[in-house]
Specification:
The protein is mostly beta strands. 0% of the residues lie in helices and 48% in strands. It contains no helices and eleven strands.
């Protein structure tokens, strides 16, 4: 399974961005996988931002983005999106999408669950 992120960029605080994660791979179905978004800034651990189960029935968010970010997916299109509204400078970082064959419940943000990662897309929020 290959994952490619897009949609990052520079935005002012209070603005919005929509990140996309496109999956590909011969014989691979996106519906097999839970997909999560992580973000990383220099000097810090990669942080789980949001997660959506394979058919979208379970969704998780880190507390700092609840009410501002929305994750969604379309398995037929092999796409997952992260709509980010009311952006803050602390939301800046490189955003990665990742795929896991399981939904890990309350430990969804543990990196070790995820077998496949994209190359990342950079988000910069200016104050």
């Amino acid at each position: 399974l290959q994952l490619v992120e897009s949609g990052g960029g520079l935005v002012q605080a209070g603005g919005s961005l929509r990140l996309s994660c496109e999956a590909s791979g011969e014989g691979e179905m996106l519906a097999y996988y839970t997909i999560a978004w992580f973000r990383q800034v220099p000097g810090k651990e990669r942080e789980g931002v949001s997660c959506i189960s394979s058919y979208g029935d379970r969704i998780n968010y880190v507390d700092s983005v609840k009410g501002r970010f929305t994750i969604s997916r379309d398995n037929a299109k092999k796409m997952v999106w992260l709509q980010m509204d009311s952006l803050k400078p602390d939301d800046s970082g490189v955003y990665y999408c990742a795929a896991s064959p399981v939904h890990a419940g309350s430990t969804w943000d543990v990196r070790q669950w995820y077998d496949f990662w994209g190359q990342g897309t950079r988000v910069t929020v200016s104050s």
